[in-house]
Structure formats: C-alpha cells, structure tokens
Amino acid sequence: MVHKRGADILHDPWFNKDTGFPLTERDRLGLRGLLPPRVISFEQQYTRFMESYQSLEKNTKGQPEGVVSLAKWRILNRLHDRNETLYYRVLIDNIKDFAPIIYTPTVGLVCQNYSGLFRRPRGMYFSAKDKGEMMSMIYNWPAQQVDMIVLTDGSRILGLGDLGVQGIGIPIGKLDMYVAAAGINPQRILPVMLDVGTNNQKLLEDQLYLGVRQPRLEGEEYLSIVDEFMEAVFTRWPKAIVQFEDFQMKWAFETLQRYRKRFCMFNDDVQGTAGVALAGLLGAVRAQGWQLADFVKQKIVVVGAGSAGLGVLNMSVQAAARMSGNSETATKPFFLLDKDGLVTKERKHIDPAAAPFAKNLSDIEGLGLREGASLIEVVKKVKPHVLLGLSGVGGIFHEEVLKAMRESDSPKPAIFAMSNPTMNAECTATDAFKHAGENIVFASGSPFENVDLGNGKVGHVNQANNMYLFPGIGLGTLLSGARIITDGMLQAASEWYNTHNVFDPCFSVLFM
C-alpha cells in the first residue's frame, strides 16, 4: 500500500518503477502525464541497464583501474538512487561481478572520495553536535520497522585509517550485501554514521568535507554519544540488530564489551573477521590432510595486533581450548606479531588486549626467538603451518618471507593475506604462488584472479572476507529471534561454513 502520489512516488526509490508503471497505476497514483507514454517492462529496463553497464566497461577499457571502478560505482549508485527494486535485482543476478564494486575493494576508494561523490543522502548521520537530540532524531527515519543497522564512526576504514564522515560508504556497502546475499528486506535496513569528529587533518582542511570539523571526541565524552545512540535505536526498534563496523581498536573492544549483553549487536571487525578466519583455518587443516581435531597441533603466525587480528586469536584460542579440553595450552600454537615484531611477555607497555597471546620466553627460547623478533625470523624458525596477515600493511609478506614458507612443517602451507583494500593486502596471489610454491592454500580479503601456473595448472584463490559470514550472522539472528549474539553462535557459524566450503564464491552454499 502506497500513501504517496504523483511526483513523490517518482522521487522515492523504494516505490519508483520509472517507465514501468502500467496505465492503470498511472491513473490511480496520479502519474499520468508525468512519464513518457510508453510502458517499458521491468525485464526491458533490466536489459537496458545491463547494456549501459557493458557499454561503460567497453568504453573504459585500458583506463586506470581506480577510474574504471569509480565509473562502475557511479552507474550503479545512480540506479540505486532512482529504482531500488531494479538495483537489487541487478545486484542479486550479477553478485560475483558487482560485489567488488559496491563492496571491497571499490568501497575503500568511494570512502576516500565520498565528499566529492555525494549527490543524495542515504542512511542517517548522528554527530557530536546532536547530543541530547538522538531520541527524537531516530523517529525521522521513515521506515516503521528496521531489522538491520550497520554503524561506523569512520575511525578505521578498512586499512585506510580515519576517514571521518566519509566512512558512511562502508555501512551502505555492507547493507547492500545483506540484501543481495541474505535476502534482508531493503526497506528494513539502516546505514548509520556516528560523526564524532576526525583527526585526519587533510579532511579538516578540505572545503568539500561534509562532517563535523573538530578533533575526535575521546573518553567518557565519546562513550556518552554512543550510549545515547544505542538507547535511541533500541527504544524505537527493540528487535533490531546493530553491527559495529570499522571502529578503531580501543573502541571496538570497549563498545563490544559494553553493549553485547544489553543489546543485540556484534562487531564485524572483531567477531566477523574472526569467524571467517577460523573457518579458513579449520579448512586449511583439512586441505593439509589432517583431521579437524589436529587444529590444536598447528603452528599459526598472526601478523597484526589490531581489532581484527586479536579477534581472530580470541576465537581461535577458544576453539582450540574446546577441541583439546585444555584452556591453559590453547594459546601455544599461536605466534602474534605487531609493528614491533614478536609479542612476548618481556615487552614493556604491552597492550592489555594483546597480553593473553604474548609468548613466554621459556616457550620460544628453544626456537632461538626473542622479544620483538622480525617476521622473517619467526617464519624461518617456527616454520608455521599457517601465515595469517591482518596487518593493513601492503606487501609485508615480501619475497623472502614467502620463500621461507617453502620450509613450513606442512607440505601444503596456508597463506592468508586478509587486509583490505587490495593495496593493503600482505601479498598478491601471484607473488604467493611464485615465491611460496604451487602447493599452497591461499586466501585473501580482497578479490584476486586465479593464477595460471602453466602446464594446465591453476593456483586457486579463495576469498577470506567478512562478506562470507556477516549476512549469515544477521539473517540467522533474525530468524532465530535471538536477543544477544554469543561467541558460541559465531564459532558454530564458522564451523558450519567450514564444512560447507566457506571459500566457495557461490553465495548459495553459504547461507542457511
């Protein structure tokens, strides 16, 4: 039932059918005379759009990749602004081709340029200037029911850092994946930007920047803003799910612990990445010819001690403890490195979140390792079964590191370059197969093409991206009616996806 009439319908992408309105609807809805007389069917509109998109691909061939990606994003975004039904049909039918445009890796480029790309608002913006007003503001959103909210404060967008209000592109892209991959009703989703300022001086000096021009709020002042938002959201929509996205590490862990037992929420960087990585690690065990229970015997080097890396370690250690029945030894297979090298208990000023994974010197002296040992030292001496990167540092798995993985204690070592976007990937698929050898398991956070190894052989590239998990988390929570999301639920999802081939690029096998 539509309560709008005339031009208001044509300007509302939820209801607009463009030239697809039949004459009976044009009369009933006051549209006669506001559209060209010919009725163009939905199927014809679909074909026309795809021809335009393919023409764009042809005309931009040979241009820089970033220019082409943004051109593709623009044509899709214009359709999204105009006709959501057609947009999501196009997206669902062509998800393999369009996911890299509306999501990783193009979404990072969109966020970097968002103020210049902005044409029409989408989602809601709550800023530091709105304190005390959020409860009334939440009722400005026109949908009576919202099931899924993706929230960011723009402080750590992918591996690009603080992008302030421009980070809204991440919630928009994530929710498009919820609709296309999990079938969430597009009228019941809400992307949200919590703009508490930015410490990015370049943005503060940019005349086109659309956010609050002030340094980021900190401490209790920051938390009071998030508290007010969460209270407002769950007052209006008590059954909604809020997904926290791309918060810097200190706030990612703080807000997760603060809200997880009060509201239905999860942090995608801490828990979603952990779920996908755990599924990949369990899959690697099988690919290496071991039994799943042998996961506790693997040696895993994790490079990156941010929210994603520590989230992976937390969930993996819990899984190892459950499999072995011994929580005290569950951290032994894992070696954590940050920007200062191997993390041990000898380190001064160790981050409390990383402390549980710091190595005792007594455990590593036999390997000839020390506090702060470099990545190449650790790989050469540990000979890990798995090298997993969530560092955000492009190319950190350089030639020497990859060649050292040839000496792994596994005949089929696994290399996971999970950082986004593509330029932040720890290594490319081509380099991994070239330097680490053909007999590896490779997975990446950004999409890479399979590698031609010659002689008819192909190096298969698996994607280890949150998009293979978070739509299932949201949909599963909605269908089950769960009021909180526990670690056990996420581990169960990881193990289910692992047994159903988590890295298969066909979405149909991923979501129950």
From TrEMBL:
The keyword Metal-binding applies. GO terms for cellular component: mitochondrion. It holds the Pfam family Malic_M. Its cofactor is Mn(2+); Mg(2+). Residues 270-509 form the Malic enzyme NAD-binding domain. (S)-malate binds at R156, N420, N465. Residues 80-260 form the Malic enzyme N-terminal domain. GO terms for molecular function: malate dehydrogenase (decarboxylating) (NAD+) activity; metal ion binding; NAD binding. Divalent metal cations. Prefers magnesium or manganese. The active site is at Y103, K174. GO terms for biological process: malate metabolic process. Keywords: Metal-binding, Oxidoreductase. A divalent metal cation binds at E245, D246, D269. The keyword Metal-binding applies. It comes from the Eukaryota. Belongs to the malic enzymes family. This is Malic enzyme. It comes from Tripterygium wilfordii.
